[in-house]
Amino acid sequence: MQQGSIETEKRRAATLSLFTNSLLTGLKLVAAAVTGSVSLFTEAAHSATDVVTSALAFVSVRAAAAPPDEEHPYGHGKIESLAGFGEAILLMAIVVYIAFQAASRLLTPQQIPNLFLGLLLMAGSAAASAIVGFYVSGVGKRTSSIVLQSNGQHFLIDFWTSFGVLVALGVTHFTGWKQADPIFALLLAIWIARNAWLMSVKAFQELIDHRVSDQDLRAIEDILASDSRVLSYHKLRTRHSGSVHYIELHVVVSRDYSLVEAHEVADSIEKGIESALSPCHAVIHVDPDDPSKHT
């Protein structure tokens, strides 16, 4: 996929994410207001944070797509990783508030009015979250965008939490067990905290230039092994910047190669790696073989 089409798809997904989150948050706030359900209020608060994170995705995807300049020769891809980390921290903060509200309602259970309307609104919200979540997650994986993967994960979490709210409200409606609502809100808080932690770890690894995945490393090794002109390689270094992989390594070739031949080897390997790990920038250094090391 070409870089231009990648950025277009990422922007489209970020725009859809922001619009859908805003709409669903409004629906959930209405449902929470008419029912007074703490689990529904928890889900509405969670979605409100998603609006903020979608806005971050909307802005960061565009900012990260800016071309390299004199002050940022490696581009601006880290903006996406920073936004993803910020999303995770925001979710952790909302978890504390959710847990407090749920514990308070658990100690003092209350009647929930207008349950049927709340069930209808949450059913629509769950369906929309699933559809948009799969789409945004797919775009994030195809383009290696951490912030879009984070947004897609939020939508898929929203589907399950919305479904859980439906179950909690259903239990309350058919059994009259008032504690079902705050108990599910506490379970929801634990779920959100877990996913926020996993996302924060992933984003933090990119911010500190963690290497590419084992699968990508194997792809690089396969390319090197398939070229008979490469006698060995060393100083392999890899990292991410947004959706772009940066690869650098030294390859050893016969000392009898001319400068042109050595350059052809480096150019061939660079093109192979950049094609396999696209979007990717590879820099290959060529070293002559040292016969004394074989004696």
Structure description:
There is one protein chain. With 295 residues, the chain is mainly alpha-helical. It contains eight helices and three strands, in the order H-H-H-H-H-H-H-E-E-H-E. It has helices at residues 3-35, 38-64, 78-107, 115-143, 146-175, 180-207, 214-225, 259-276, and strands spanning 232-241, 244-253, 280-288. Strands 1-2-3 form a three-stranded mixed sheet. Strand 2 (244-253), helix 8 and strand 3 (280-288) form a beta-alpha-beta unit. Helix 2 runs parallel beside helix 6 (180-207) and helix 3 packs parallel to helix 5. The longest helix has 33 residues, at 3-35. It is elongated and about 85 Å long. The model has no long low-confidence stretch (mean pLDDT 81).
The sequence of SSEs as H and E is: HHHHHHHEEHE
Count the beta strands.
3
* Radius of gyration of CA atoms, rounded to a whole number: 25 Å
User: What is the CA-CA span between the terminal residues?
Assistant: 47 Å
Q: What order do the strands of the largest sheet run in, or round the barrel if closed? A: 1-2-3
Arithmetic mean of pLDDT: 81
Helix content percent band: over 70%
Q: What's the layout of helices and strands?
A:
Elements (H helix, E strand, L loop, with lengths): L2 H33 L2 H27 L13 H30 L7 H29 L2 H30 L4 H28 L6 H12 L6 E10 L2 E10 L5 H18 L3 E9 L7
Helix pairs in contact: 1-2, 1-4, 1-5, 2-3, 2-5, 2-6, 3-5, 3-6, 4-5, 5-6, 7-8
